[in-house]
Amino acid sequence: SIDAQRLLGRIRELGGIGRDGEGRLVRLAASDADRLGRDRFVGWLREAGLEIAIDRMGNIFGVWQAPANAGHAPILVGSHIDTVIDAGIYDGCYGVLAGLEVIETLKASALVPSRPLAVAAFTNEEGVRYSPDMMGSLVHAGGVGIDEALAAVGTDGSVLGEELARIGYAGDEEPGFLKPHVYLELHIEQGPVLEREGVPIGAVENLQGISWQRITIDGVANHAGTTPMSMRNDAGHAAARVVTFLHDRAKASNTPTVATVGTMRFEPNAINVIPSRAVFTVDLRDPFEHRLQAEEAALAAFLENLAADGGVAISVERLARFEPVIFDISIVELIEAAAKKRGYASKRMTSGAGHDAQMMARLAPAAMIFVPSAGGISHNPREHTADAELVAGANILLDIVAQLADQ
Amino acid sequence: SIDAQRLLGRIRELGGIGRDGEGRLVRLAASDADRLGRDRFVGWLREAGLEIAIDRMGNIFGVWQAPANAGHAPILVGSHIDTVIDAGIYDGCYGVLAGLEVIETLKASALVPSRPLAVAAFTNEEGVRYSPDMMGSLVHAGGVGIDEALAAVGTDGSVLGEELARIGYAGDEEPGFLKPHVYLELHIEQGPVLEREGVPIGAVENLQGISWQRITIDGVANHAGTTPMSMRNDAGHAAARVVTFLHDRAKASNTPTVATVGTMRFEPNAINVIPSRAVFTVDLRDPFEHRLQAEEAALAAFLENLAADGGVAISVERLARFEPVIFDISIVELIEAAAKKRGYASKRMTSGAGHDAQMMARLAPAAMIFVPSAGGISHNPREHTADAELVAGANILLDIVAQLADQ
Ligand SMILES: NC(=O)NCCC(=O)O
Ligand SMILES: NC(=O)NCCC(=O)O
């Protein structure tokens, strides 16, 4: 079994790195805080005696390779260590540190694996600073070119490539240089299902599609006191109509479709001025591609009507679009079997969140293991998973990696 | 008649001061840009040979006093030179510069007025950086204490008193030191009425009540992909419901009530995080106090229901509250008579915007003159009034001041 104290200690230590003035965990991709987190992770890779490789995308790999298995495609375990704003400490970091823990455990055992073992921390999984999310693994999987990715402009106007160079994580390796035999990712569920059902292990068999758009509504700024209601072209009101449309539609449907408006900005944003502009993002998700397309079409039709009768101009920019993914069934079955062997119940489930595994599934057989999230809360400092559940998940990962590395 | 070229030239010159990096006119109260505008205005007062007085509130007064009329209460013409964000050049500045123009014109004539003539530029009329609006005239009229006003914290976290000291406009005079005999204010309408009716002069007989509130909605941050619609406490969606409620209610009513949500902020404001908090402002106005109260009550009831069924906590902060004002009927009649004498049609009307006259009416008989706003547009760089209309308004002001100063 893994060294539970070492794993839990590292999760907490990494979770303490990158706190802002108010004590909030904010380790956005390629920021100064991210540099500190990366430095700590690389230090642990070095202490574990792994070979360290960093690609041009800033993705960090730690590889344990023995003379006997050199040249074989590795078993790769990965996730990310960037965070959202005011984040919890488990999202991403748990999977990366558990990957390292599993390799250290196996390295210290008698086993000589038939394949190299590797752990990856992918750049900008969260997609908060730069779109799209899962960008590092997307580039690794060849889904977008490295030059296009490095040119991404952040919400703060920064350029990803420049920021990676600035923090010292623009590496030399070409993205995709490491071709995994299998890709595994251990992650907190970030949703309420496992906790509600009292099941400690999720065998993730699919991952829903994600559609991200940025919508800009242009109206006419005017005086809040003198402009009759009938003569307004209020961009803020039009934006509010989109928010309620999306929310009410998704809530009323009997599908698992989710719709979120997470960001909103008014211009000029003054108390006595009718907003001339509203800019906001839409996050739509559904496990089925045809339904995701139907939701996108419904939004487009609503925006068209709104522009027609609201006296506003609307433009839409696509920030990310990923189809649903179905994971490798044989690995899903391995997860179920490993859980059973350790005496844990498991449940096949859908991932509501996007993950690097979604991209890596393009390159190699892939699947994910979930552990419960207390109250289903994530992307929130209250994100929590019990120590015993974290350790259980890491031990299942250990068993599967050991089994795959022994074949 | 006044010197039209001098007046128009000054309006344009002042409108060129305080442009931001994008060329937008942003001369927020007590900012560096405001200092530049004030310096220019004070320079003109000096050139005109007026006595300059600045009070602790930063209100600037230029006074023409002759030995013959010393000690008498002055005829005061005033308005403001602070602006909103991305403003037009007429709002406030027109009235201040026309006041100066009228005094210069009378000073150059044979008239020896029976009372001193004074022009005032009041601090922070717009209320964009510090609440409430009309703050300088409110303090002058004794409606709020100077210490409370100077302690006002701005949208940028600044403190008004410190900012006034920093820009060199924390004067020595006690607020209210100058007690006017009559207060007059010339202003662009900022609304569509005069243009629509083809009338060049508005004789403003009343001014609607203003209610400003800041509303904070607290929900729960959670993951946009994993959190079912039924389990969300989405502060952004709750805020959007308030925006549509207010807008739709005011639009559907057959009263002149107006409702505006001009500012909006989400937290943490990330694309894949359900907003934990939304903070926004509400601007409600109506010419009748009982109706303004009814609108406030309807909003409060809506918020109560929203908190009950939306799973969010709502707190409300009052930023400004002014009852409707009825101006002095004898001055309104003077305006009508002066317009008629110069051959202009005039119209009695309600002011939709708040103005310093609203505060000064507590101290002295007061009224306002309006000139048309093209397209009814204000608080917008497209704010425009034709030169001939600006000159007509200033000449009406000249005639009334001359008449009052001759009594
Ligand atoms: N796991 C996770 O939170 N990924 C971020 C991308 C997403 O929004 O799903
Ligand atoms: N005149 C004017 O725009 N005043 C600002 C205060 C208000 O919002 O009415």
TrEMBL record, chains A, B:
Signal peptide: none annotated. SUPFAM superfamilies: Bacterial exopeptidase dimerisation domain, Zn-dependent exopeptidases. Residues 208-309 form the Peptidase M20 dimerisation domain. Pfam families: M20_dimer, Peptidase_M20. InterPro entries: Amidase_Cbmase, ArgE/DapE_CS, Bact_exopeptidase_dim_dom, Peptidase_M20, Peptidase_M20_dimer. CDD domains: M20_bAS (cd03884). Zn(2+) 2 binds at residues 91, 126, 379. Keywords: Hydrolase, Metal-binding, Zinc. Its cofactor is Zn(2+). Zn(2+) 1 binds at residues 80, 91, 187. GO terms for molecular function: hydrolase activity, acting on carbon-nitrogen (but not peptide) bonds, in linear amidines; metal ion binding. Binds 2 Zn(2+) ions per subunit. NCBIfam families: hydantase (TIGR01879), PRK09290.1-5 (NF006771). Belongs to the peptidase M20 family. This is Amidase, hydantoinase/carbamoylase family. It comes from Mesorhizobium australicum (strain HAMBI 3006 / LMG 24608 / WSM2073).
